[in-house]
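User: Please predict the structure of the protein below. I'd like the answer in structure-token form so I can feed it into my own downstream comparison script.

Assistant: Understood. Taking the following sequence of 296 residues as input:
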Amino acid sequence: MGDAFGPLVDPAWLVASLGAADLRVIDATWYAPIDDKDARAEFTAGHIPGAVYIDISDVCDPGHSAPHMLPPAELFADFIGAAGIDGDCRIVVYDNGEYAATRLWWMFRVFGHDRVALLDGGLAGWSAAGGELETATPAPAPSPTPAVFKAVFRPGLIRSMADVLANIGRDAGDREQMVDARPPDRFAGELPEMRPGLLSGHIPGSVNLHYADLIDDHSGRFRAAAEIEQAFRDRGIDLDRPIVATCGSGVSACHLALGLFLTGRSDVPVYDGSWAEWGAHPDNPRRMGRDEDAGS
């Protein structure tokens, strides 16, 4: 598939391609703190043959208080190399949940690796396509020595809290549009936050588009590009203007970034800290309710 690899691969394609010398598969299943699930135990119970497990909470900035923040480039490179993945690999990421693999997809792109794709439909799609599962944990690398992965940071694909604060202060026509992927009741502040000490609400001027609205309910796959574009337009988003994705902790926001990638927008950044960082600072401005639109 060459340079055109990704951003999605069909489960049937992966069933046929598994075992290719340059192909690596990663299980990135992760669950929110309120979920009573063990992603690593699920991996042990059954995963795509040859896959390695990577927890996004392990590949993070250890000095930051917010969860699974992007690590320094050299730390990411060391972690990925130790998993047996080098810069020449085609990488397929998947999960057994709803969205976590898109976070790892985005991280690879942030660190300069474009030959990465999401398994459309996840582990359920793999099984539906006739893919078998294995329970043995594979070796972390295909050779006795770790692979060499070179990470090249792309700052344009990330926004910081300082960036978002500056954006709020701009005139409406000059702002980047903030789109929040959380469920509507969390965006509105109608539910308490799942992490202790966080205030409820959303970033002023942001618009809510639940990440699940980009996924077909029946197949679990991403909707067609035209449907994704319409979902954004229905929320008042101008697809010709800059967009920043945000969410609870920088995970489901990557769903929005991938969805927009499918429409031809490969430049959409993610606010990495998202509400887990923003809501932990009581001086940050915030809004409540469901009805704020993109022009506010």
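That's the full token string. The mean pLDDT is 91.
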